[in-house]
UniProtKB/TrEMBL annotation:
This protein's name: Loganic acid O-methyltransferase-like
Keywords on record: Magnesium, Metal-binding, Methyltransferase, Transferase
Presence of keyword Methyltransferase: yes
Any single biological process term in GO: methylation
InterPro entries: MeTrfase_7, MeTrfase_capping, SAM-dependent_MTases_sf
PANTHER family the record matches: S-ADENOSYL-L-METHIONINE:CARBOXYL METHYLTRANSFERASE FAMILY PROTEIN (PTHR31009)
GO molecular function: metal ion binding; methyltransferase activity
């Protein structure tokens, strides 16, 4: 969600002609389409996200191909072989965590497989002796039937689904060679319990995020992200073979940037403001809003580095910011607002429906749209965009 929001913010801030925007959309596809909490009834909105996110996956493809070429010792991981495969076929196992349902995950996986095949030939390894197994993972609520129906008919790998949250163990020990995840790790396993507890000093009354909340609330989100990320790294540390790779893209705040000055958390506050207006008009109860927070946190590169180093299972091989293309032209800002609202609806509709009921979903996002148009997020220079960080980790050999 954060990546698409960043692109739209950039579009709205700098402007973009409608025709140019459509050209951008035609270039896009996504390895990052993570709508883990979205209702699949919103197919139109999900399609909007898939179009908007293509630039990110194309950029990630380049980095992943480079990462495999420079950091993956295929011979060490799977051994040698000849066309006759005297030692039998070897399986190279890949997992895509937070895969969602569509084209995006297939593009990412095919890039990984193709990059590994390129690595095999110079290493004098036979392609006939290696089979690729890909595990597609997401929450149990994900539509795996839709995912499997969408699988490419001609693909160079065997496919399987693995339902469950990725913060804990999903696979047997030392069974994976490459793990990939795009724009999923900023989602928390759950909202910190203390921020929705009326008896807690961390109670986040009247807000649905931490951007402008008291420091105690912010620290609760920091602690929850740190806990989740450490669990994630420890689980992958058990599952990935020595020398195997873990690659992910995660939306971040620049080092030293307060969340109150970043446009991504600020947009969440706009949604919270729309919900509070509905409270004041008697459409929903205040306790419904007070018990609802967005389960996400945007870390910083410095903070993320410290967590990775503390876990001890992986070495950091690459950490790069994905540079966005310039946005040179001017369009009607209303197009940007509509894109932003569709994006947020695709990502958050399931949560809104679960908390406030089916009957209010349309009104929530209509009000959010109006609030967004009235906000200064796109014009006030104090709001800085987030950054998208590509991270490559290598499992240490015990």
């Amino acid at each position: 969600m954060a990546y698409t929001a960043t692109i739209i913010i950039h579009l709205c801030r700098h402007g973009y002609k409608t025709q140019a925007l459509l050209v951008l959309g035609n270039r896009l596809s996504s390895a990052i389409f993570n709508v883990r909490y979205a209702s699949l009834r919103s197919v139109h909105f999900l399609t909007t996200n898939m179009i908007l996110q293509r630039w990110g996956v194309e950029k990630a493809k380049e980095l992943i191909a480079r990462a495999i070429a420079e950091n993956l010792n295929v011979k060490q991981l799977v051994g040698t072989g000849t066309a006759s495969c005297p030692g039998g076929r070897t399986t190279f196992s890949i997992a895509d965590l937070g895969c969602s349902v569509g084209l995006n995950t297939f593009i990412a996986v095919e890039n990984i497989v193709d990059s590994i095949k390129l690595k095999l030939n110079p290493a004098s390894l036979s392609l006939e002796c290696i089979e690729f197994q890909v595990f597609f993972n997401d929450l149990v609520s994900n539509d795996f039937n839709l995912l499997f129906k969408s699988l490419p008919s001609e693909r160079g790998y065997f496919a399987a689904g693995v339902p469950g949250g990725f913060h804990g163990r999903l696979f047997p020990s030392r069974s994976l060679h490459f793990v990939h995840s795009s724009y999923a790790l900023h989602w928390l396993s759950e909202v910190p319990k203390e921020v929705v507890d009326p008896g807690s000093p961390f109670y986040n009354k009247g807000r649905i995020g931490y951007a402008t909340a008291p420091v105690e609330v912010y620290e609760a989100f920091v602690a929850k992200f740190s806990e989740d990320m450490e669990r994630f790294l420890n689980a992958r540390g058990e599952e990935v073979v020595g020398g195997g790779l873990l690659a992910f893209i995660i939306p971040c705040l620049s080092d030293g940037l307060p969340p109150s000055q970043c446009s991504l958390p600020a947009i969440g506050d706009v949604l919270g403001s729309a919900l509070m207006d509905m409270v004041h008009q008697g459409m929903i109860t205040e306790d419904k809003v007070d018990s609802f927070n967005l389960p996400r946190y945007h870390t910083s590169p410095k903070e993320l580095t410290a967590i990775i180093e503390r876990s001890g299972n992986f070495s950091i091989e690459m950490m790069e910011v994905l540079d966005r293309p310039p946005m040179p032209e001017v369009i009607d800002k209303s197009i940007c607002f509509r894109m932003m609202v569709r994006h947020f609806r695709a990502t958050l509709e399931g949560l809104i429906r679960e908390q406030f009921g089916d009957g209010l979903v349309d009104q929530v996002f209509e009000r959010f749209s109006k609030k967004l148009e009235e906000s200064s997020i796109f014009t006030d220079p104090k709001y800085k965009p987030g950054v998208e960080m590509f991270v490559l980790l290598k499992r240490k050999i015990a």
